[in-house]
Design brief:
Elements (H helix, E strand, L loop, with lengths): L22 H13 L2 H8 L3 H15 L4 E3 L4 E3 L1 H21 L11 E5 L1 H17 L4 E5 L2 H9 L5 E4 L9 E14 L1 H14 L10 E2 L5 H11 L9 E2 L3 H9 L4 E5 L4 H6 L3 E2 L8 E8 L7 H13 L4
Parallel strand pairs: 3-4, 3-5, 7-8
Antiparallel strand pairs: 1-2, 5-11, 6-9, 6-10, 6-11
Helix pairs in contact: 1-2, 1-3, 1-4, 2-3, 5-11
Length: 315
């Protein structure tokens, strides 16, 4: 590279060249910027938190400006940090890709993947089976999107499937798949309810047991608002923190629920479940594939990401 190398592309706010800045300090800075905390950066880099703190203080002294605002939980980048990250992130990632071979030749570290349990178990893991057969190792975690994205920033995962688009610029995400939601019941309930629902609207469902994912009825509330244009009142008869459990309860005759269509395709095809309503504009939710910043040293992460993006349109 000309112009003094990678660091020659960075300048202080007063216009002086930043070539003399220590490369390790910049690497640590980028880890803090991307993870949103000194603790997360320490985990990403294999350093102690006091070391990260000391390095950031040293870099701030050299830059002559504060780079991060210390918060009760984590840090928030200043405008100066945003500018510095924009200048150094691409060169440092390129350098890491060139200088960071696998620790064991021919054997990459496991890919740490996380997301909703139902989507992982019914769609994602079957899609990734060919890669596992060819030697890719996976470590899979399940959970809700917000905690998983926090763990991603802290370096605990390489890839997260999120049910909402991540906020901010620190995490790169791409749309993965769309979930269409459908209001369903077992045949006996459907026989009793479809006529009254068509005549009376959602009031016909008020006394019917509702089986949901959580106490605050997140999926059902969204369906009622989007399809019926009104607020869902009442409480759940059954809550199960796994949509596969919700599916099983409703197939057994427990009541009604709203499910992603992909999860109950087999039951709809067999008649074990019946759609109570087929609106012309059903509610849709987009899932996003989110990658840990700077995770370029493990080539298997890129293989998993590429296969998921190619397989998802068939889901």
């Amino acid at each position: 590279m000309g112009g003094g190398g990678i660091l020659g592309q960075v300048e202080h706010t007063d216009g002086r060249s930043a070539e003399h800045l220590d490369l390790n300090l910049l690497r640590t800075f980028l880890a803090v910027y991307r993870s949103g905390s000194f603790t997360g950066a320490a985990q990403m880099l294999g350093l102690s938190q006091p070391t990260v703190t000391t390095q950031m203080r040293a870099l701030e002294r050299q830059a002559g400006r504060e780079l991060f605002e210390r918060l009760p939980r984590g840090v928030s980048p200043t405008a100066v940090a945003d500018e510095l990250a924009a200048r150094v992130s691409a060169p440092l990632d390129e350098l890491a890709a060139v200088a960071g071979p696998d620790p064991v030749p021919g054997r990459s570290d496991p890919v740490h993947l996380a997301g909703p349990a139902e989507l992982l178990c019914t769609r994602v893991l079957p899609a990734l089976a060919p890669l596992v057969a060819r030697g890719v190792r996976l470590r899979v975690a399940t959970g809700l999107t917000d905690p998983l994205l926090g763990e991603l920033r802290a370096g605990r995962h390489d890839l997260v499937i999120a049910t909402t688009r991540p906020r901010g610029r620190a995490l790169a995400s791409v749309p993965l798949t769309d979930e269409e939601f459908v209001l369903v019941a077992a045949p006996d309930w459907a026989h009793r309810l479809r006529g009254p629902l068509a005549d009376e609207g959602p009031a016909a469902l008020h006394s019917v047991p509702l089986v949901t994912y959580a106490e605050d009825l997140p999926i059902a509330r969204r369906y009622w608002r989007h399809v019926f244009g009104r607020r869902l009142s009442g409480s759940a008869a059954v809550t199960v923190p796994d949509l596969r459990g919700v599916l099983a309860a409703v197939v057994g005759g427990a009541g009604i629920t709203v499910l992603p269509r992909y999860l109950c395709l087999g039951e709809l095809a067999s008649g074990a479940l019946v759609p109570l309503h087929e609106p012309p504009d059903p509610p849709i939710n987009t899932a996003f594939l989110v990658q840990r910043p700077g995770a370029v040293e493990n080539r298997d992460v890129a293989r998993v990401r590429a296969l998921l993006l190619s397989a998802a349109p068939a889901w």
